[in-house]
Amino acid sequence: MKSRKQTKPCDSISADSAKPLLGSSGTSTTQRFPESSESESESLGADDLRTHGAWIEVNLANVVANARFILNNTSGAKLLAVVKANAYGLGAGRIARELEPLEPWGFAVATLDEGVELRDVGISRPVVVLRPAEPWMEDSYRHHELRPVVESKGGLNDWSTPFHVEIDTGM
Q1: Which contacts of 29-38 are long-range, i.e. CB under 8 A and separated by 24 or more positions?
Q2: What is the widest separation between alpha-carbon atoms in the chain?
Q3: Sign of CA dihedral 110, 107, 167, 144
Q4: Quick one: pLDDT at residue 153?
Q5: What is the CA radius of gyration of the chain?
Q6: How many helices (H) and strands (E) does the chain have?
Q7: Contacts of 23 (CB under 8 A, 6+ apart)
Q8: Residue 69 lies in a domain
């Protein structure tokens, strides 16, 4: 009996390699902090990163492949793709559109403004705003069809729109 090679998900972020981590095709987005020239970054070793900055390389095809792997191996679990902080500087709208064909349940962002930005680029799936919301913000959430996170027991009765409950586990 032949054994089949098992594939495992892996990070699509590499700080020590310019090679894609899962697959070999797709568009890469590279961010370097602080900004450096291409020739300088090509010659840096891992030790040099401490003094010359670091970079992040994300292969969009790998992001989609990793999300697909998770969906295919979690027996019916729904995907809530976290794209807060502008997808960590990579473009929340861009990453969300790349994940759309996988039909995630929705997306999560940190702030109300980030949720509005997803709506502005045409994302129609549920968007959960992770920063706890106050009842006086409900009109904005309703207008943009965003889902707030409610953290106070008293706030649970104040919302007439769908919301998520934050539970502080002390972690």
Answers
A1: 29/57, 29/58, 29/60, 29/90, 29/91, 30/55, 30/56, 30/57, 30/58, 31/55, 31/56, 31/89, 31/90
A2: 64
A3: positive
A4: 77
A5: 19
A6: 7, 8
A7: 59, 61, 62, 65
A8: no
Between CA 152 and CA 132 the distance in angstroms is 9
Q: How many domains does the chain have?
A: 2
- The residue-averaged pLDDT of 5-19 equals 39
**94 and 44 belong to one structural domain:** no
pTM reported for the whole predicted model? 0.67
The residue written with tokens 């920063």 in the block is: 131
Identify the CATH number of the domain in which residue 114 sits: 3.20.20.10
pLDDT digits 0-9 by tens, 101-141: 999 999 999 999 999 999 999 999 999 999 988 888 999 99
Separation between Cα atoms, residue 133 and residue 150, nearest integer Å: 6
